[in-house]
């Protein structure tokens, strides 16, 4: 009922704004046009409306006004995009574009959707969640980007483009305060140093007490604590040679995010609960703990830190050689993360995991591009080298050590009635080298008809070493010399090769109306299971075998149009995907310890459509609506005795929708204006796992937001109040099945919140 009310409220709000704007127009307003957005989706500057690719783009200012603060927030405003956060805010995301994604939470396996910051590929999954600030725009490319982009773009790519240094001196700052004592600040300053050098420095930071009440301590959890900094320097070495240098870094230092524990066992008998009792919150975990009935409360005994450190540098050179431009992009990135997780989300020491990862990544891209009378072309080479090390520990049933001999480990559970008491460590090292050659040409067959042909050759080599061990002075009552008992150790390597292609046509039906069609392929290399392997060395060796690459062939047709004298932008796309050997992660509960499997399914089919509408029906009214429709199906896949055939892919709701209406009321006497903004987003029911388990799902829900701002006509200042999740919708962002320990781990969305913010600019 709450979802219907939210939808009704959003519809009424949008209609009210529309009617108010229409009435104002009748009083003599002039109608203006929809703002055009320039994108670089095809490695050159083009109008969004002239790119024959499905692209959703927003300016940095629009993202800020919508409350999009993190890279993981963009799913709320882009159709057919979902971003799950299994480890909570600040941890690696599971990015799904049009049903294409990877639900593996291991930090050594990047998903099939590329994340780029200023054209630099963010390789480490642990670094793909970051705060976004001082942006020029965000571009989300849908469909395989197997020609022009680097690695792992089977499903699409997300480009974050920073605001660049300018000739004029500019400065701006923003400060906001909101619910849960949340303080956020941003600032940027820049300008010309001399005729040849321009700089820009930007920073962002936040702190918050958090929105979950900890009944054990009386404090709050799931707060914020981060700081990020970026410095850019643009240099004109000569008339034909320029460069952009970037130095960036960030740090997260906050108590680790907490989950909601949804028990699945009868707290009195330990027997499995009926699903209705589970959903009612009446059941507990294997030690009998039942979570509080309140959605945003828990009792957490572990309150250690999530600590993330990122820093990197890049240099982009553009050398104009006459009719050809040579571009070189060199980048280095470092990521160091330790997530000390209260996995069981309870006051009992049942399960605690530490996820540690450190990565060093070097990338180099070289491109040649040119433009002829009928052609636009680009060709280049790409190289990546990454070293990634994992240090992960799991502490099981420490609560029961009073029952074990000498308080030591008891992996077999002989003294506890079957519960394995142990402390184990997994140490993994993965080295990746990837290289590619690529090219794409657009040829104008006639002034109205253009053809695009592109291809890319990919080569990738991975080396993976893993070691697992128990760490305890006593195991089964037997002293262990040095406190370490090795379980397994091995080295593996694998090589992958692929050739991707794209063939497309686009045709101008009329002025500012284009249709296009394309066939393209995408490729994601195989890899290794970097999660916790079985404590059985034979089973672990089987889990450690590399999984194969996955490929996707996409058929797409689309429309891009600007109508009604520029007042309406209407874009649409329909697509069909033939998905081969898709990589599927499954967590299989065995009745003892869960088994993590990462393997290739047989095939999957995906089809759907998107419609994006931007309209300015009257001068002071802006309306944006995005609709995504999606149907996904796994074909012929059996894993660990479970049949997944016919199931829906994870994080792939059939319907996604977002809408924003903004209306400006001029205040001529104050040389200012009041801006009213309402926003709404909807996603239909979805599953968080490929087995489509009812307890690993979320029903459809609406999120409603609003903002009222007073801003000066010259843009020098703005004051605003805002609200998010105004209907107090309770929803789950992601869930993990840990029923071997008697519970489902749920990462829950933020509750209703309000705040004020102030902006100044010069």
Structural features, described:
The protein is mainly β and 762 residues long. The protein is built from 4 helices and 45 strands. The chain has a 22-stranded antiparallel β-barrel. A 5-stranded mixed beta sheet has the order 3-8-9-6-7. It has a 3-stranded mixed beta sheet with strand order 14-13-18, with no helix packed on it. 46% of the residues are buried. Mean pLDDT is 92; it is low at 1-29.
Layout of strands and helices, then pairs:
Blueprint: H1 2-26, E1 38-39, E2 46-47, E3 55-59, H2 60-65, E4 81-84, E5 94-97, E6 113-117, E7 120-121, E8 135-142, E9 156-162, E10 170-178, E11 182-192, E12 197-208, E13 212-214, E14 220-221, E15 224-236, E16 241-255, E17 260-263, H3 275-279, E18 297-298, E19 305-320, E20 324-341, E21 351-371, E22 375-396, E23 422-444, E24 449-471, E25 474-475, E26 478-479, E27 484-510, E28 513-524, H4 537-543, E29 550-563, E30 568-580, E31 583-588, E32 595-600, E33 603-618, E34 621-635, E35 638-639, E36 642-643, E37 655-667, E38 672-683, E39 686-687, E40 697-698, E41 701-712, E42 717-724, E43 732-738, E44 743-748, E45 753-761
Parallel strand pairs: 6-9, 13-18
Antiparallel strand pairs: 1-2, 3-8, 4-5, 6-7, 8-9, 10-11, 10-45, 11-12, 12-15, 13-14, 15-16, 16-19, 17-44, 19-20, 20-21, 21-22, 22-23, 23-24, 24-27, 25-26, 27-28, 28-29, 29-30, 30-33, 31-32, 33-34, 34-37, 35-36, 37-38, 38-41, 39-40, 41-42, 42-45, 43-44
